[in-house]
Amino acid sequence: MVHPPVAKWFIAAGMRIFGDRPFGWRFFGALFGTFSVLIMYLLALRLWASPWWAAAAGTLLAADGLWFMQSRIAMLDIYVAVFVLAGIWLLVVDRDVTQPDHRGFRWWRIAAGAMFGLAIASKWDALPFIGVGIASTMAWDAVRARDAADRRYVGKVAGTLGALVLLPIAIYIASYTPWFVDSHRYNLPQCSKDTTTFSFGVYHLGGLAGQWLCYQHEVYNFHANLQKYVTTTDPTTGKTVKSPGHPYYGNAWTWPWIGRPVAHYYQTTGSGPSQRDSEILGLPNPMIWWPGFFIGFIALAWWTYKKDTTASFIFALFVAGWFPFLILGDALGKPVFMFYATPLVPYVVLTLVHVLYRSVRRWPQLMPYAVGYVVACVGAFAYFYPILAALPIPYGGAFGWARHIWFSDRFHFFKIKGDCSVPNKIKLLCWI
After folding, report:
1. Phi, psi torsion values for 390, nearest 5 degrees
2. Sign of CA dihedral 215, 123, 283, 68
3. How far apart are CA 341 and CA 10, in angstroms?
4. At residue 202, does pLDDT exceed 50?
5. What is the structure's pLDDT at 371?
6. pLDDT at residue 274 tops 90
7. What is the distance between the alpha carbons of residues 291 and 353, in angstroms, rounded to a whole number?
8. In angstroms, how far is the first alpha carbon of the chain from the final one?
9. What is the dihedral of CA 103, 109, 110, 113, to 10 degrees?
């Protein structure tokens, strides 16, 4: 109960409609993942005004292994990611269609606020993206007000804060309506008494509202007190040993080279020549991920410095999806998993598309290579599909399971000396 309820409602709705079975658990996640490709297309169409680049963005998103995998299992991250992506798209639509002298409600912006509210009511990971959305919207309004000599900018700021701050907060609180009305509501022991009060400064709030705020505070404390390492004492030496609390903990600074993808399912059937291995590995597409981080991120940083507004917008979203986990996981020692990068995937894709767009615009003869790159990404997705979708495949052979596990100290493709087998260590490059 340490995450808000909205994404869990969709999972529960699938179970209610289709039964408590895999299809029911996964139905709405797959639906969200499918619609995300259309949303990405529409967003890219706004950014580059080209159906080709929009199609490239949608194709690359569909071809990312982490995005595909998260769309097919009952986890919260795909819901957060799609709500955020929809909110960002709606803000860009609002920017493009609203005239500088517009008066009255800005319905596209209100719709974006609603998407952000649903995102934060699914998982708090949406907060950095919402911050970028608010800052970008206010910057766009400031530029348009300056260019149009509009003196109503302060009023527009108030409207922006209402749509993108107050509305998401209201939706977040409203998402707990079942909790408020249920006499058998779940609550933590320290928050469940009728006499519970929640204090902030000199103010003290009791009753059901106080219990709810206490609950939210304890959820925050749960996340704040999580630690990546467990400290134990070696019984033979008496020395203190720090070891990861989970075998798939990773570091956000290893995301660029896909250091530690999470295996969500693994099964072996048969033995010898008839052995078949099935796995669901949360593996981003290396053809997207590696150039996205090692080329695209650096290029966007440079173009942001050069005042490319599209690059700066995408760069800010990229930072919002990556840097919080660099701080939490690496600087503060909090647990980080590779699938936390799910909301980041669309902005890695947009980063690559912007690199391709600028390259082709400057050197038109590169267009065939851009097409070839997109095709290669689809090919890489097809290659890794068996270990994304739990297809039973032979262990060995040219297209066997071991050949898909590119980085490991146990298998025979690119052997990494000792990384996977070293005990009590966070793995820096281990696909298994």
Report:
1. 60, 35
2. positive
3. 21
4. no
5. 97
6. no
7. 11
8. 30
9. -150
